[in-house]
Specification:
The chain is built from 13 helices and 5 strands. It is of the alpha+beta class.
Length: about 290
Amino acid sequence: MESTEEITIQTVAPEALSLITKAEIDVQISTAKAFPRSMGVFLKKAMSMATLNEDIAASCSYSLPRGGKSLDGPSVRLAEIICATYGNIRAGARVIANDGKTVTAQGICHDLETNYCVTVEVKRRITYKNGKTFDEDMQVVTGNAACAIAYRNAVFKVVPSALVSDVYDKAREVAKGTAETLVKRRDKAVEYFRGLGVKDEQICAVLNIQKVEDIDLDKLAVLTGMKAAIKNQESTVKDIFETTIEEVSLEDLEQLFELKKDALNEKDLKNAKRILDSKEVASYKKLYNQLKAL
Protein backbone atom coordinates (compact mmCIF):
# COMPACT_ATOMS: atom_id res chain seq x y z
CA MET A 1 0.00 0.00 0.00
CA GLU A 2 1.46 3.32 -1.10
CA SER A 3 1.72 6.08 1.45
CA THR A 4 0.46 9.52 0.60
CA GLU A 5 1.78 12.81 1.84
CA GLU A 6 -0.19 15.99 2.07
CA ILE A 7 1.56 19.16 1.01
CA THR A 8 0.19 22.49 2.10
CA ILE A 9 1.04 25.45 -0.11
CA GLN A 10 0.94 28.78 1.60
CA THR A 11 0.44 31.97 -0.37
CA VAL A 12 1.86 35.25 0.77
CA ALA A 13 -0.30 38.35 0.33
CA PRO A 14 1.18 41.20 -1.72
CA GLU A 15 0.96 43.45 1.34
CA ALA A 16 3.15 41.01 3.30
CA LEU A 17 5.72 40.87 0.48
CA SER A 18 5.79 44.67 0.44
CA LEU A 19 6.47 44.75 4.19
CA ILE A 20 9.24 42.14 3.83
CA THR A 21 10.90 44.13 1.03
CA LYS A 22 10.64 47.37 3.03
CA ALA A 23 12.22 45.68 6.05
CA GLU A 24 15.10 44.36 3.93
CA ILE A 25 15.78 47.83 2.48
CA ASP A 26 15.61 49.43 5.95
CA VAL A 27 18.23 46.97 7.21
CA GLN A 28 20.43 47.67 4.18
CA ILE A 29 20.17 51.44 4.74
CA SER A 30 21.04 51.04 8.43
CA THR A 31 24.06 48.92 7.52
CA ALA A 32 25.16 51.47 4.92
CA LYS A 33 24.99 54.26 7.51
CA ALA A 34 27.03 52.19 9.95
CA PHE A 35 29.71 51.27 7.40
CA PRO A 36 30.03 54.19 4.92
CA ARG A 37 32.06 53.76 1.75
CA SER A 38 35.58 55.06 1.26
CA MET A 39 35.99 56.95 -2.01
CA GLY A 40 39.70 56.21 -2.08
CA VAL A 41 39.15 52.47 -1.71
CA PHE A 42 36.36 52.57 -4.31
CA LEU A 43 38.48 54.31 -6.94
CA LYS A 44 41.44 52.02 -6.33
CA LYS A 45 39.37 48.84 -6.56
CA ALA A 46 37.39 50.02 -9.60
CA MET A 47 40.54 51.03 -11.47
CA SER A 48 42.25 47.74 -10.62
CA MET A 49 39.27 45.64 -11.68
CA ALA A 50 38.53 47.51 -14.92
CA THR A 51 42.14 47.41 -16.13
CA LEU A 52 43.05 43.88 -15.02
CA ASN A 53 43.67 42.82 -18.63
CA GLU A 54 42.85 43.92 -22.19
CA ASP A 55 39.69 41.81 -22.48
CA ILE A 56 38.17 43.17 -19.27
CA ALA A 57 39.15 46.72 -20.23
CA ALA A 58 37.59 46.27 -23.68
CA SER A 59 34.30 45.14 -22.14
CA CYS A 60 34.06 48.42 -20.18
CA SER A 61 33.10 50.55 -23.17
CA TYR A 62 30.74 50.29 -26.12
CA SER A 63 30.73 51.84 -29.56
CA LEU A 64 27.75 52.16 -31.92
CA PRO A 65 27.66 53.59 -35.47
CA ARG A 66 25.40 56.62 -35.73
CA GLY A 67 25.22 58.93 -38.75
CA GLY A 68 28.63 57.98 -40.08
CA LYS A 69 30.26 58.49 -36.68
CA SER A 70 30.68 56.29 -33.62
CA LEU A 71 28.83 56.84 -30.37
CA ASP A 72 31.06 55.75 -27.46
CA GLY A 73 30.41 55.42 -23.75
CA PRO A 74 30.82 53.32 -20.59
CA SER A 75 29.16 49.91 -20.88
CA VAL A 76 26.98 47.79 -18.61
CA ARG A 77 30.09 45.78 -17.64
CA LEU A 78 31.69 48.94 -16.27
CA ALA A 79 28.41 49.72 -14.47
CA GLU A 80 28.65 46.29 -12.81
CA ILE A 81 32.24 46.96 -11.76
CA ILE A 82 31.23 50.36 -10.37
CA CYS A 83 28.38 48.82 -8.36
CA ALA A 84 30.59 46.02 -7.05
CA THR A 85 33.25 48.44 -5.82
CA TYR A 86 31.14 51.50 -4.88
CA GLY A 87 29.36 49.60 -2.13
CA ASN A 88 26.12 50.30 -0.27
CA ILE A 89 24.13 50.38 -3.50
CA ARG A 90 21.23 48.42 -4.98
CA ALA A 91 20.66 48.11 -8.73
CA GLY A 92 18.68 45.98 -11.14
CA ALA A 93 16.56 45.92 -14.29
CA ARG A 94 13.51 44.10 -15.67
CA VAL A 95 11.15 44.17 -18.64
CA ILE A 96 7.88 45.85 -17.61
CA ALA A 97 5.95 46.03 -20.89
CA ASN A 98 5.66 44.52 -24.37
CA ASP A 99 2.96 45.94 -26.62
CA GLY A 100 3.92 43.97 -29.71
CA LYS A 101 5.76 46.94 -31.23
CA THR A 102 8.20 47.94 -28.50
CA VAL A 103 9.57 46.37 -25.35
CA THR A 104 10.07 48.55 -22.28
CA ALA A 105 12.70 47.84 -19.62
CA GLN A 106 13.00 49.54 -16.25
CA GLY A 107 16.33 50.03 -14.51
CA ILE A 108 16.67 51.11 -10.89
CA CYS A 109 19.63 52.20 -8.78
CA HIS A 110 19.47 53.14 -5.10
CA ASP A 111 22.35 54.66 -3.12
CA LEU A 112 21.68 53.33 0.37
CA GLU A 113 23.92 55.88 2.08
CA THR A 114 22.27 58.99 0.66
CA ASN A 115 18.89 57.35 0.00
CA TYR A 116 19.08 58.72 -3.54
CA CYS A 117 17.18 56.52 -5.99
CA VAL A 118 16.79 56.74 -9.77
CA THR A 119 14.45 54.79 -12.04
CA VAL A 120 15.05 54.74 -15.80
CA GLU A 121 12.87 53.31 -18.57
CA VAL A 122 14.21 52.25 -21.98
CA LYS A 123 12.17 51.31 -25.05
CA ARG A 124 13.42 49.10 -27.89
CA ARG A 125 11.63 48.37 -31.15
CA ILE A 126 10.65 44.71 -31.76
CA THR A 127 9.43 45.06 -35.35
CA TYR A 128 11.22 44.88 -38.68
CA LYS A 129 11.08 47.71 -41.20
CA ASN A 130 8.16 46.00 -42.92
CA GLY A 131 6.18 46.07 -39.65
CA LYS A 132 6.46 42.35 -38.92
CA THR A 133 7.05 41.53 -35.25
CA PHE A 134 10.25 39.77 -34.16
CA ASP A 135 10.01 36.09 -33.31
CA GLU A 136 10.02 35.11 -29.64
CA ASP A 137 13.76 34.54 -29.39
CA MET A 138 14.57 37.93 -30.91
CA GLN A 139 12.10 39.60 -28.54
CA VAL A 140 13.95 38.02 -25.60
CA VAL A 141 17.30 39.22 -27.01
CA THR A 142 15.91 42.73 -27.50
CA GLY A 143 14.44 42.69 -23.99
CA ASN A 144 17.82 41.71 -22.53
CA ALA A 145 19.46 44.54 -24.48
CA ALA A 146 16.90 47.01 -23.14
CA CYS A 147 17.49 45.76 -19.57
CA ALA A 148 21.26 46.12 -19.95
CA ILE A 149 20.87 49.71 -21.17
CA ALA A 150 18.34 50.58 -18.45
CA TYR A 151 20.61 49.14 -15.75
CA ARG A 152 23.64 51.00 -17.11
CA ASN A 153 21.82 54.31 -17.38
CA ALA A 154 20.38 54.06 -13.88
CA VAL A 155 23.76 53.28 -12.30
CA PHE A 156 25.50 56.15 -14.06
CA LYS A 157 22.78 58.57 -12.96
CA VAL A 158 23.39 57.68 -9.30
CA VAL A 159 27.18 57.32 -9.26
CA PRO A 160 28.65 60.73 -10.28
CA SER A 161 30.30 60.74 -13.72
CA ALA A 162 33.29 62.58 -12.22
CA LEU A 163 34.09 59.39 -10.29
CA VAL A 164 33.61 57.13 -13.31
CA SER A 165 35.42 59.14 -16.01
CA ASP A 166 38.98 58.35 -14.88
CA VAL A 167 38.23 54.62 -14.64
CA TYR A 168 36.55 54.69 -18.07
CA ASP A 169 39.40 56.59 -19.73
CA LYS A 170 42.05 54.29 -18.27
CA ALA A 171 40.11 51.19 -19.35
CA ARG A 172 39.87 52.52 -22.92
CA GLU A 173 43.60 53.22 -22.92
CA VAL A 174 44.38 49.64 -21.81
CA ALA A 175 41.88 48.19 -24.31
CA LYS A 176 43.43 50.18 -27.17
CA GLY A 177 46.68 48.27 -26.78
CA THR A 178 49.84 49.03 -28.75
CA ALA A 179 50.96 48.94 -32.37
CA GLU A 180 52.91 45.75 -31.64
CA THR A 181 49.72 43.82 -30.86
CA LEU A 182 47.51 45.57 -33.46
CA VAL A 183 47.48 42.89 -36.16
CA LYS A 184 46.74 40.04 -33.76
CA ARG A 185 43.90 41.91 -32.02
CA ARG A 186 42.50 43.22 -35.32
CA ASP A 187 42.33 39.71 -36.77
CA LYS A 188 40.68 38.44 -33.58
CA ALA A 189 38.02 41.16 -33.70
CA VAL A 190 37.31 40.66 -37.41
CA GLU A 191 37.04 36.88 -36.95
CA TYR A 192 34.53 37.43 -34.14
CA PHE A 193 32.23 39.40 -36.45
CA ARG A 194 32.73 36.95 -39.32
CA GLY A 195 31.57 34.23 -36.95
CA LEU A 196 28.35 36.19 -36.47
CA GLY A 197 27.76 36.32 -40.22
CA VAL A 198 29.01 39.89 -40.72
CA LYS A 199 30.79 40.47 -44.02
CA ASP A 200 34.07 42.36 -44.32
CA GLU A 201 32.29 44.92 -46.52
CA GLN A 202 29.88 45.71 -43.69
CA ILE A 203 32.74 46.15 -41.22
CA CYS A 204 34.50 48.48 -43.65
CA ALA A 205 31.32 50.47 -44.22
CA VAL A 206 30.78 51.01 -40.49
CA LEU A 207 34.38 52.09 -39.96
CA ASN A 208 34.45 54.12 -43.20
CA ILE A 209 37.53 52.35 -44.58
CA GLN A 210 38.30 50.49 -47.83
CA LYS A 211 39.58 47.17 -46.44
CA VAL A 212 40.03 45.50 -43.05
CA GLU A 213 43.80 45.94 -43.29
CA ASP A 214 43.18 49.70 -42.95
CA ILE A 215 42.02 49.23 -39.33
CA ASP A 216 44.41 51.20 -37.13
CA LEU A 217 44.47 51.55 -33.34
CA ASP A 218 41.66 54.13 -33.31
CA LYS A 219 39.43 52.10 -35.65
CA LEU A 220 40.19 48.97 -33.65
CA ALA A 221 39.02 50.74 -30.50
CA VAL A 222 35.68 51.46 -32.24
CA LEU A 223 35.40 47.87 -33.52
CA THR A 224 36.22 46.52 -30.06
CA GLY A 225 33.52 48.76 -28.60
CA MET A 226 30.98 47.31 -31.04
CA LYS A 227 32.05 43.82 -30.08
CA ALA A 228 31.62 44.69 -26.39
CA ALA A 229 28.14 46.15 -27.04
CA ILE A 230 27.03 42.87 -28.63
CA LYS A 231 28.63 40.62 -25.99
CA ASN A 232 27.22 42.77 -23.18
CA GLN A 233 23.76 42.52 -24.78
CA GLU A 234 23.55 46.32 -25.05
CA SER A 235 23.03 46.01 -28.79
CA THR A 236 22.64 43.39 -31.51
CA VAL A 237 24.36 42.60 -34.79
CA LYS A 238 21.18 43.72 -36.56
CA ASP A 239 21.18 47.12 -34.83
CA ILE A 240 24.82 47.81 -35.65
CA PHE A 241 25.14 46.45 -39.16
CA GLU A 242 21.68 46.50 -40.74
CA THR A 243 22.23 49.97 -42.23
CA THR A 244 25.60 48.96 -43.69
CA ILE A 245 24.18 46.30 -45.98
CA GLU A 246 24.38 47.48 -49.55
CA GLU A 247 21.31 49.68 -49.94
CA VAL A 248 22.42 51.31 -53.21
CA SER A 249 22.81 49.19 -56.32
CA LEU A 250 25.64 49.84 -58.76
CA GLU A 251 23.11 50.48 -61.54
CA ASP A 252 21.28 53.17 -59.54
CA LEU A 253 24.55 54.77 -58.55
CA GLU A 254 25.82 54.88 -62.14
CA GLN A 255 22.58 56.48 -63.33
CA LEU A 256 22.78 59.15 -60.62
CA PHE A 257 26.44 59.73 -61.43
CA GLU A 258 25.62 60.40 -65.09
CA LEU A 259 23.07 63.00 -64.02
CA LYS A 260 25.28 64.76 -61.48
CA LYS A 261 28.85 64.34 -62.70
CA ASP A 262 29.03 67.81 -64.27
CA ALA A 263 28.48 69.34 -60.81
CA LEU A 264 31.49 67.55 -59.30
CA ASN A 265 34.88 69.19 -58.95
CA GLU A 266 37.94 67.49 -60.44
CA LYS A 267 38.92 65.71 -57.21
CA ASP A 268 35.40 64.42 -56.41
CA LEU A 269 34.92 63.33 -60.03
CA LYS A 270 38.12 61.29 -59.88
CA ASN A 271 37.06 59.66 -56.59
CA ALA A 272 33.60 58.85 -57.94
CA LYS A 273 35.02 57.19 -61.05
CA ARG A 274 37.40 55.14 -58.89
CA ILE A 275 34.55 53.92 -56.67
CA LEU A 276 32.44 52.91 -59.68
CA ASP A 277 35.25 51.33 -61.68
CA SER A 278 36.65 49.41 -58.68
CA LYS A 279 33.16 48.51 -57.40
CA GLU A 280 34.00 49.74 -53.87
CA VAL A 281 30.74 48.60 -52.27
CA ALA A 282 31.64 50.12 -48.89
CA SER A 283 31.69 53.58 -50.51
CA TYR A 284 28.45 53.31 -52.49
CA LYS A 285 26.21 54.85 -49.86
CA LYS A 286 28.61 57.72 -49.15
CA LEU A 287 28.92 58.54 -52.88
CA TYR A 288 25.15 58.23 -53.36
CA ASN A 289 24.48 60.73 -50.56
CA GLN A 290 27.13 63.09 -51.96
CA LEU A 291 25.55 63.01 -55.43
CA LYS A 292 22.01 63.41 -54.08
CA ALA A 293 23.09 66.56 -52.23
CA LEU A 294 24.21 68.27 -55.45
